[in-house]
């Protein structure tokens, strides 16, 4: 199988490296990045030319649409465009339509697991698109990740991703503000963790990614809130969730409020470049007003 890989940044480069290490014939293209050990083409079309599967790992939907138009024209009929970027549902569906017109298959398969997951080949993929296309790319997903869920038609992968991350953003904020309330009530943080992590308030953000340093398993809080999963990326996903909610007329007040808080944190405070769990020191430094 011949693979093209467009977008070799923080996530794409280690994902491509894992495919090359598994023996795949892979050609990459990126407008800026030149990762070691990845054979590079001069254009996206050249990387896609003759490829059975072209993977894209790009910053947003606008860039994805531009790149898709270029690579679809170069891909052989029946080839699969596997997009692993996190983009708006609309762009994912548009790219699937473009692919169909070019007699190609498209799968949207955004990931969860971050740079660590990309490096270790332990990402989770949530995929949308035809089942036969998903089956074709499954061996690649198995190398780059540890789990891949087929969620439904085109755009379903992106839909699953933004719903998951909307829960994640809301839950992280709830966990952080509860720690700050506990602090102010004189409750020891370890006691707070021991109770909540084994009670009905438990969650992934408390049990696996605890925002309080020195409590629970190792997490970015123990590394001065270096990301991890940056607050900027959480804001991106919460914005995508609100775009989708508006388009679908879904009432999502908690998602909207989480978006507003992360926007304030990243754009007006010191949240840019910090882990999304740094909401805890942010709340701790404030009172009610
Ligand atoms: P990144 O900015 O490090 O990488 C994107 C790469 O795309 C860059 O190297 C850039 O030069 C390249 N690029 C931009 N425009 C291009 C074009 N027209 N043609 C070719 N290459 C182009 O971003 P990243 O952290 O690797 O994230 C990639 C995607 O994965 C994003 O959609 C992001 O939301 C998603 N994601 C990231 C993480 C994370 O922890 N970093 C986690 C989950 C999902």
Question: Describe it for me?
Answer:
The chain is α/β, with parallel strands linked by helices and 289 residues long. The protein contains twelve helices and eight strands. It is elongated, with a radius of gyration of 20 Å. The structure holds nicotinamide-adenine-dinucleotide (NAD). The site of nicotinamide-adenine-dinucleotide (NAD) has 26 residues, from helix 3, helix 5 and helix 10.
Brief characterization of the structure:
The protein is α/β, with parallel strands linked by helices.
Distance between the termini: 59 Å
Radius of gyration: 20 Å
Q: Report the uncertain regions.
A: none
What is the SS-derived class?
alpha/beta
Bound molecules: nicotinamide-adenine-dinucleotide
Q: How would you sum up the major sheet? A: 5 strands, parallel
The share of residues in helices is: 40-55%
What topology emerges from the helices and strands here?
Blueprint: E1 2-6, H1 12-21, E2 25-29, H2 44-48, E3 53-56, H3 61-72, E4 80-83, H4 89-101, E5 105-108, E6 111-112, H5 114-120, E7 123-128, H6 131-144, E8 145-152, H7 156-184, H8 189-196, H9 204-207, H10 231-248, H11 253-267, H12 279-284
Parallel strand pairs: 1-2, 1-3, 3-4, 4-5, 7-8
Antiparallel strand pairs: 6-7
Helix pairs in contact: 1-5, 3-4, 7-10, 7-11, 10-11
The protein binds nicotinamide-adenine-dinucleotide.
């Amino acid at each position: 199988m011949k693979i093209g890989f467009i977008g070799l940044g923080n996530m794409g480069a280690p994902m491509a490296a894992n495919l090359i290490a598994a023996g795949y014939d892979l050609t990459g293209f990126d407008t800026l990045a030149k990762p070691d050990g990845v054979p590079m083409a001069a254009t996206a079309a050249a990387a896609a030319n003759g490829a059975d599967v072209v993977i894209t790992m790009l910053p947003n939907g606008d860039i994805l649409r531009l790149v898709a138009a270029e690579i679809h024209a170069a891909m052989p009929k029946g080839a699969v465009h596997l997009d692993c970027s996190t983009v708006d549902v609309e762009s994912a569906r548009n790219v699937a339509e473009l692919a169909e017109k070019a007699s190609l298959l498209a799968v949207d398969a955004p990931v969860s697991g971050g740079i660590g997951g990309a490096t270790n080949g332990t990402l989770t993929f949530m995929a949308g698109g035809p089942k036969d296309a998903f089956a074709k790319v499954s061996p690649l997903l198995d190398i780059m990740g540890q789990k891949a869920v087929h969620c439904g038609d085109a755009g379903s992968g992106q839909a699953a991703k933004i719903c998951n991350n909307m829960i994640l953003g809301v839950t992280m904020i709830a966990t952080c503000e509860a720690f700050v309330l506990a602090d102010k009530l004189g409750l020891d943080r370890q006691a707070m963790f021991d109770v909540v992590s084994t009670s009905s308030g438990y969650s992934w953000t408390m049990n696996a990614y605890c925002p309080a340093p020195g409590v629970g398993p190792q997490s970015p809080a123990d590394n001065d809130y270096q990301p991890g999963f940056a607050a900027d990326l959480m804001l991106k996903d919460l914005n995508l969730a609100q775009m989708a909610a508006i388009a679908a007329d879904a009432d999502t007040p908690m998602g909207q409020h989480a978006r507003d808080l992360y926007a304030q944190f990243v754009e007006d405070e010191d949240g840019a470049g910090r882990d999304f769990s740094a909401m805890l020191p942010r709340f701790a430094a404030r009172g009610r007003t």
